[in-house]
Amino acid sequence: MICENLSVSSDGILLFGGANTVDMIKKYGSPLYLMDERRLRHNCRVYVDSMKKYFGDDALPLYASKANSFKQIYRIVASEGMGTDVVSSGELYTAKSAGFPLEKAYFHSNNKTDADIEYAIDCGIGYFVADNEEEICAIDHFAVKKGITQKILIRLTPGIDPHTYEAVATGKVDSKFGSAIVTGEAERVTKIALSKKNIELCGFHCHVGSQVFDSDVYLAAAEIMLSFVADMKKNYGFETKQLNLGGGYGVRYTEKDPVIDIAENIKLVAETLKKLCEKLDIDLPAIRMEPGRSIVADAGLTLYTAGSVKRIPEYKNYVSVDGGMPDNPRYALYQSSYTVLLANKMNEKSDFLCSVVGRCCESGDILQENVYLPSSVTRGDIVAVLTTGAYNYSMASNYNRIPRLPTIMVNGNEDYVAVRRESFEDITRNDM
Ligand SMILES: *Cc1c(COP(=O)(O)O)cnc(C)c1O
Questions:
Q1: For residue 184, what is the DSSP state?
Q2: Alpha-carbon Rg of the chain, whole angstroms?
């Protein structure tokens, strides 16, 4: 199986984090997101432990919470000692409501509104990651107004193509994110930040993309960032305290995706950075990384109940489920691969080629094409889509007025509701 927290019971039921998936549907209804708390904590510990080990005690991984944002997840990552990234006031509000230590929170996004900036300062956000000049000025304006000094990092684009999907590549010069190093914009913006009395520039950030498997990409980005750090020291005497290398490590959606040893990768990046620092005659800044997907993706899966099974001889077969693009828009957005299993028939041979589709009035409402399921698949069977812990719930909608799914957390022998199922009252709450 693609993740070690998956197994099969003797009677052919898919187990996730030890929990019986069919029992979960009986207990909590269908469809639902399942999360494995032990796997989630394990993924956090890989980052916390290896960053401290290889970069030193001042290193800190930040959970990029846009991957999956709800109160309990902030509590869990906080208890594992991680910081967090937020990209909107809504995520910040959720973190704050969960009691997250906001001095360890970083506010991202390429366009923070004035309301975002003011709200985040009022909440006591640790850092803004400023995207450009306008934002630095806006943050300074509110810092002056409130009589505080606000810590920031500046987001830079190192000019790297991470060999991933175009839609998730963010580190190239022509990206909508950040200020480019090669055009001179990064240096110009740094000077502006240094001139603001109510801003404390702590360092720089880059994020090259998502679902990245190639460690060379990180090494290349780190090298470009560090030579910029050295230039800023040389030109302005500026000591970079923090260097944030972003997120992006890939996860296994299917057997075809490689396994990444994250600890080994972090070790490699650390060795390279330390050598470069010596060469450039600078101190190693405190390192931040911002994993999102690789913290939550394989800690989650989605369970559905099969409905119509449509066989169109010589053309195509369809298996429809009781969810779809409202709970997982990623296939519709960028044809993401997923592994789909029939959770209650794991001992049967899978030789029935089909498309697994959602229930919405939209032909693009597809979860996955070219899937093999057991040919006995029928109404009432339980369909599992694996590795849905990232960018599913956080991207979910109410299209067709379908209520959002609950998130059920399993933790060894226990299971509990972390996000309850939306009701029809929830959906109509704001209708006048
Ligand atoms: C999305 C994002 C991340 C997380 O990326 P993953 O691929 O989920 O690890 C980290 N940093 C920034 C700035 C992001 O936009």
A1: S
A2: 23
Ligand 1 centroid – CA 186 distance (Å): 20
292 in contact with ligand 1, CB cutoff 6 A: yes
**Residue 206 among the catalytic residues:** no
CA atoms of 4 and 291, how far apart (whole Å): 20
For ligand 1, the distance from its centroid to the CA atom of residue 385, given in whole angstroms, is 22
Q: Which two tokens stand for residue 331?
A: 């296939």
What is the Å distance from ligand 1's center to 207 Cα?
A: 7
Between strands 316-321 and 350-357, the pairing is parallel
Tens-place pLDDT, residues 89-101: 999 999 999 999 9
Catalytic residue among 123, 137, 277, 361: 361
pTM of the predicted model as reported, rounded to 2 decimal places: 0.95
Query: How far, in Å, CA of 201 to CA of 244, rounded?
Result: 13
CA distance 385 to 339: 6
Backbone angles phi, psi at 294, to 5 degrees: -75, -5
Q: Which of 66, 205, 208, 391 to mutate to test the pocket of ligand 1 (most atoms within 8 A of CB)?
A: 66
Q: Contact at 8 Å (CB) between 208 and 248?
A: yes
Give the residue carrying structure tokens 């796997």. Answer: 39
Residue 152 clears pLDDT 50, i.e. is over it: yes
